[in-house]
Design brief:
- The structure is a single chain.
- By secondary structure, this protein is mainly α.
- It contains four helices and no strands.
- The relative contact order is 0.11.
């Protein structure tokens, strides 16, 4: 599935009915017909995979009293758009003009500096001189 919304990527009624049956097993107090309706209302908010993730997240929250919450903005939508992992695209070595896998003996990938994770989380400021500040 893809995150972008298009006609090929929207939830179908049979998919909504099957997801509703699953959600009803999690939330017996939610009526399956009401869940299907809520999924239909929310259909344009995201691709089929994002809608399914958001719907499950909404169902496991006991504070959500009805399935109507699925189509509303809320915490259940945060992070529902799954990162794509599609086919691996091999990078080309700019020095040698061949795939990197053929150049590994010439190159070594390095990760971020030791301070990066703390900086990203706002715990520390970056070193003043990035070149000399390890």
């Amino acid at each position: 599935m893809m995150n972008e919304i298009n006609e090929k990527n929207l939830m179908t009624k049979p998919q909504a009915q099957q997801l509703a049956a699953f959600l009803h097993s999690i939330r017996p107090d939610w009526d399956p017909a009401g869940i299907v309706h809520a999924l239909g209302v929310a259909r344009g908010r995201g691709s089929v995979d994002a809608l399914a993730v958001a719907a499950v997240r909404a169902a496991v929250n006991p504070g959500n009293r009805t399935p109507a919450v699925i189509g509303q903005s809320g915490a259940h939508w945060v992070g529902a758009f799954v990162e794509r992992q599609g086919p691996v695209r091999e990078l080309e070595c700019v020095e040698h003009g061949v795939p990197e896998s053929r150049c590994r003996r010439h190159h070594q990938r390095v990760g971020p500096p030791d301070w990066w994770e703390d900086f990203r989380k706002g715990r520390v400021a970056p070193p003043e001189a990035v070149d000399g500040g390890k």
